[in-house]
Amino acid sequence: MHCSASTTLDSISWFWERMENQTWHRVGFSRNLTVTEPQESGLYRCLAERWSSQSASPHHMVYIVSVHATVAENLGIAGLIFSLLALMINGTILLWLGFRKLPTSTSSTGAGFPPPVEAPNGDLPQHDGDVYINYTNTNQAYTDLNPVTMTGDNIYSSVS
After folding, report:
1. Which of 40, 72, 141, 157 could share a disulfide with 35, CB 3.0–4.6 Å?
2. What is the pLDDT of residue 46?
3. Residue 6: which of 40, 53, 55 has the closest Cα?
4. pLDDT tens profile 86-120
5. pLDDT value for 28
6. DSSP string of the chain, one letter each residue
7. Residue 127 region, left (φ>0) first, then alpha (ψ -120 to 50), else beta?
8. How many CB atoms neighbour CB 147 within 10 A?
């Protein structure tokens, strides 16, 4: 609340009073008074004092009503908080996926595959298991490139 006068002099002292138990009690000592709590509701007036004279404003009834949040408002606030939390978690996961170190490979094979076996001194690579090759037509013979099954120089046995 703000108290004002038609003419304002520097030597005026301003006061706010509130009616309590049929008696006026001073509650403020400036031109402005802020009330925020429901228990501060009541009858108020402003006083201006200059030397020994005093002038009072008409009194005003002030009502401060406390408004409590409804269940729907509380659910809305909770939903907003959970949505923001989910957004932060999703953002963290995306940043983690984007900045994590991917495995580096010197081979031209895809990720997760072992690099090709290098043959010592230009010989054929030695394998501990089966060797497979790709083929596109089932009518052609499948060739087993296992060096153990060689029948001569650079000649492999074939299976039909």
Report:
1. 40
2. 93
3. 55
4. 999 999 998 888 888 665 555 455 666 777 666 66
5. 93
6. -B---SS--TT-EEEEEEEETTEEEEEE-SSB----SGGG-EEEEEEEEETTEEEEPPPEEE-----PPPHHHHHHHHHHHHHHHHHHHHHHHHHHHHHSPPPP-SSSSPTTSPPPPPPGGGPPPP-SS------S-TTSPEE---GGGEEETTEE-EE-
7. beta
8. 13
